[in-house]
Amino acid sequence: MNSIDTVSELNELLAGNNVNIQLSVPQLVEKATSRGEAVLTSTGAVKAETGKYTGRSPQDKYIVEEPVSKDKIDWGSVNQPISSEIFDSLYTKVIEYLKQQDELFVFKGFAGADHDSRLSIQVVNEYAWHNLFAHQLFIRPTEKELEYHAADFTIVSAPNFKADPAVDGTQSETFIIVSMEKRIVLIGGTEYAGEMKKSIFSIMNYLLPEQNILPMHCSANVGEQGDVSLFFGLSGTGKTTLSADAGRKLIGDDEHGWSDNGVFNIEGGCYAKCINLTRENEPQIFDAITFGTVLENVVIDAETRVANYDDNSLTENTRAAYPIQNIENIVDPSVAGHPNTIIFLTADAFGVLPPISKLTKEQAMYHFLSGFTSKLAGTERGITSPQPAFSTCFGSPFLPLHATVYAEMLGKKIDEHGAQVFLVNTGWTGGEYGVGSRMKLSYTRTMVRAAIEGKLNNVETETDSVFGLEIPKQIEGVPTEVLVPRNAWEDKAAYDIKAAELAKAFRENFKKFGTVSDDISLKGGPLA
Ligand SMILES: Nc1ncnc2c1ncn2[C@@H]1O[C@H](COP(=O)(O)OP(=O)(O)O)[C@@H](O)[C@H]1O
Ligand SMILES: C=C(OP(=O)(O)O)C(=O)O
Ligand SMILES: [Mn+2]
């Protein structure tokens, strides 16, 4: 089978009389509820459950081994190859399966708020609620744009189609396969909606560097003076939470590009975690949950239909998906200038990294490549407690190219625009996970604001004796004893052992970058 067949199979599917194209939010809400896929809640949000897949399933993610991309992809456990024969045969089966459905739902829109580099996408869904998710998360076209819309990439999602590993060549019933050549994402066996948005993000991580644009797994906001801040971080480290700040306009909560013009959001919506969500702690996010928001795996009262955000019985990874316009203070379209402040968020389960520290250029490169953090409960299949992890560029599950491609681009941009980089530990303090506690959100917010407002530029600092990081000695509103990790631990000997263990893990991990990065390692890594 060649690529022409893939296109005509898709066209035939889309020409069927069971296809609903570009339904509005109320129409999709109606479809999702009347078809029994979701229920209406007291705020007008719709709530859907996703069965056993309540987070991403990285083990089931593949990229088709094809001539156009073969030599560019950084193949390995993240970017697992799959043959075009397997893809073609599964694709045909999925298309046949979708043709049998009573109804299908298609969303057409864009990824990338900068018109120069945006990608036209379409999403074909078996479920109305998934299509509502696509509508809320991707960039919605104007009427005129819709008229001329021609998809560069298509997501075909059939969660109820399950692969048979013995016959289909997958590792399980679930598959998320990207073909860069055929420009298709094929999803089956999982209902977790996040797979759709993260697939498009992976594709942007493949396409943007060719246009000299740095794709970034970060949130972004901008202050009154046009000062832009970025917050890099793996899932659950605080990108969405910390970028929602009443005093600053939100650019986006998860995926951005940085071009010669500045930064832009890749998406048109946010995907916030809502476990333990309260209006008091996260007012912007709480209030964004209104009519048409998709609540994923949130437990609601059967009668009143009021959400209970404290209930983690379905998963720790409960989610709300809403258009960015649901947040009061935003820039629209989601574009802004060059960043002044860059924050690397890490959720350190060892409890030894300082809650905030200032990085030199070499430290910034070292920590960007290392990407040390923890995988937090629920974010990936099988993760039930924080698992320390080195996730290159704070987003390794989404990077098809070699990490150094992104790191070099970031290094150049930091130099060019003179951005100050901070490392912020939103994870544990006073002891490792199980002994200490998670850093208080209100402290993290205070520290982050101080950094963004330039208040930490000329403060007195203390050098972390293990990692060589510069720790501000005082930050107004934060108790001084939490600033230096060793002081926050009651058992100093235990701290010393943990810190040495983490420094060793950093050094071991950095070996994978070889001698090219010796200078960065020497000047930016843990002290001897
Ligand atoms: N100190 C802290 N900083 C940031 N988030 C925190 C902190 N303590 C607890 N949290 C919680 O951790 C979660 C962070 O998730 P989120 O912002 O959605 O991460 P991301 O967008 O990076 O995936 C939120 O539920 C937030 O309430
Ligand atoms: C959607 C996800 O991203 P994040 O948690 O970074 O928002 C995810 O990791 O599944
Ligand atoms: Mn997020």
TrEMBL record:
Entry binding sites for Mn(2+): K198, H217, D254
Lineage start: Bacteria, Bacillati, Bacillota, Bacilli, Bacillales
Protein name: Phosphoenolpyruvate carboxykinase (ATP)
A molecular function GO annotation: phosphoenolpyruvate carboxykinase (ATP) activity
Cellular compartments per GO CC: cytosol
Species of origin: Psychrobacillus vulpis
Listed pathway(s): Carbohydrate biosynthesis; gluconeogenesis
Function: Involved in the gluconeogenesis. Catalyzes the conversion of oxaloacetate (OAA) to phosphoenolpyruvate (PEP) through direct phosphoryl transfer between the nucleoside triphosphate and OAA.
EC main group: lyase
Broad class of where this protein is predominantly found: cytoplasm
Cofactor(s) annotated in UniProt: Mn(2+)
EC number(s) recorded for this UniProt protein: 4.1.1.49
Highest rank taxon of the organism: Bacteria
Reactions it catalyzes: oxaloacetate + ATP = phosphoenolpyruvate + ADP + CO2
Keywords of this entry: ATP-binding, Cytoplasm, Decarboxylase, Gluconeogenesis, Kinase, Lyase, Manganese, Metal-binding, Nucleotide-binding, Pyruvate, Transferase
